[in-house]
């Protein structure tokens, strides 16, 4: 997508066929596969192609998504879609943000990550604002280096203790605005349309499919 002050370029359309999902996170791949199902796209996971996971050196969600998508497209010779997403807590100045996965450690223990978030909020006192939002940046890259990107978000509040065993990541402690159940308590078909990922996908679908 064009930046401010740049001449807008025509958005490239995505043709039906194989598309690499540049993620090794099975939860994300499953959500993305469901969102793409109606459009004649054949999702192939980076893991199934033995593609390596690049080091996420970007300083924004968009930069990290582009990095992952461009590497997957270059190595596979196919269009590739990457997502970079995370939980941003207002009281923690946006943390864990782009480091959301890293807070879970090498073992990807999101129970530990949620506890870290809660501990950091409690250090600020019992009246601390618990507003938070999820952000999802989607980058769609082609082997020739062309990239389109889209960013979605969903607002909510953090609850403690975590509620529900569905979903993944920080879902069990995130209560989306206007709802009385966390993402962790919702079935996939109820949760998916509400998510930051679905918000970004609606933009992608309108633009490239």
From TrEMBL:
It catalyses: ITP + H2O = IMP + diphosphate + H(+); XTP + H2O = XMP + diphosphate + H(+); dITP + H2O = dIMP + diphosphate + H(+). The gene is rdgB. This is dITP/XTP pyrophosphatase. Substrate binds at residues 23-28, 85, 168-171, 191, 196-197. Homodimer. PANTHER family: INOSINE TRIPHOSPHATE PYROPHOSPHATASE, INOSINE TRIPHOSPHATE PYROPHOSPHATASE/HAM1 PROTEIN. Keywords: Hydrolase, Magnesium, Metal-binding, Nucleotide metabolism, Nucleotide-binding. Belongs to the HAM1 NTPase family. GO terms for biological process: nucleotide metabolic process; purine nucleoside triphosphate catabolic process. Mg(2+) binds at residues 55, 84. Its cofactor is Mg(2+). Binds 1 Mg(2+) ion per subunit. Signal peptide: none annotated. It holds the Pfam family Ham1p_like. Its EC number is 3.6.1.66. It comes from Sphingomonas panacisoli. HAMAP family: Non_canon_purine_NTPase (MF_01405). One of its GO terms (molecular function) is nucleotide binding. Pyrophosphatase that catalyzes the hydrolysis of nucleoside triphosphates to their monophosphate derivatives, with a high preference for the non-canonical purine nucleotides XTP (xanthosine triphosphate), dITP (deoxyinosine triphosphate) and ITP. Seems to function as a house-cleaning enzyme that removes non-canonical purine nucleotides from the nucleotide pool, thus preventing their incorporation into DNA/RNA and avoiding chromosomal lesions.
